[in-house]
């Protein structure tokens, strides 16, 4: 009898690489493994390319801690490394004509030559568009071929089989959708991923494309200050207040553009657990706030021990693993 395939989500960050392995067992997902390897050097540069030697070394450590059958991998790119564009195409175009039109549109929108890009596209289906419409909107995503290939090549060298390359925002929204299915009162919740360099704010409005904003505000500066001054809880209060101000602006902007799909609460994830006061943030922004526990609704394989502390830093990797099982 064939075993259900394992899905590996790999989150390549600036300061660590995380992997989560899931497997479908009857009507439930099983957590087969999770691993985090901290990096001694920054793997990703400002142009979103990776240091292949460092990535290869870290992934070799990760592979040793995964089940030997765990080969199929889903990866993510930062949203800032991806060109996202909606293109209106004539409904009568052939597939070749549609692709040519999309290449032309990318050539006008991209700072890089089209020959250096990998791209994907699909029609946006909505009740708002009539069958008799003369044009159809297509969602187009594109990224530099080098940005994708240097990630794939490192994994291929280790015997992994990369299957999907997603946006980081989409990985978080896959997890949010799964959590909403597990608890109905979490519908229309946004996701806030608190990182060292910046914070991601994303939401999936009903009937619309994913909404995403990158906030240039992260834990790195405060963690450095805390280490230098040892102010502890005071830094947590300061950071939470500043994060609340950033989020209130983003929530106000979102609500002004999506008045029919208001935010009912926020999932928090990322590595900022020590600096964010959940209760204070909730009071300041006036919404329910909960730290993500991405492994909460999974059964566990026999050898898997859940972490004693929070596991919210595995949110992206878990979302990617769920995407691989879709």
Show the helix and strand layout.
Layout: E1 6-12, E2 16-25, E3 28-38, H1 52-64, E4 72-77, E5 83-90, H2 95-109, E6 117-123, E7 135-144, H3 145-157, E8 161-167, H4 168-182, E9 189-194, E10 199-203, E11 211-215, H5 220-229, H6 233-257, E12 265-270, H7 278-285, E13 288-291, E14 299-300, H8 315-325
Parallel strand pairs: 1-4, 3-14, 4-8, 9-12, 12-13
Antiparallel strand pairs: 1-2, 2-3, 5-7, 6-7, 9-10, 10-11
Helix pairs in contact: 1-3, 4-8, 6-7
Structural features, described:
The chain is of the alpha/beta class and 326 residues long. It is 34% helix and 29% strand. The chain has helices at 52-64, 95-109, 145-157, 168-182, 220-229, 233-257, 278-285, 315-325, and strands at residues 6-12, 16-25, 28-38, 72-77, 83-90, 117-123, 135-144, 161-167, 189-194, 199-203, 211-215, 265-270, 288-291, 299-300. β2 and β3 (28-38) form a beta hairpin. α1 crosses α3, α4 packs across α8 (315-325) and α6 runs parallel beside α7. It is globular and about 55 Å long.
